[in-house]
Amino acid sequence: xxxxxxxxxxxxxxxxxxxxxxxxxxxxxxxxxxxxxxxxxxxxxxxxxxxxxxxxxxxxxxx
Length: 63
Known about the structure:
By secondary structure, the protein is mostly helical. Helices cover 25% and strands 0% of the residues.
């Protein structure tokens, strides 16, 4: 006997439900994006790494 590709972890799925989710997954896998997204983001990260921060900053300082 072969191992199924999709397994129901909780509950009981009817064969039609398993076929529907399989069709959706196969359609999503076969779909190709129309264009590759171009990155128009910022070249520098907008977050700070805390281990690279300096020492103490006064609570009334702006930065």
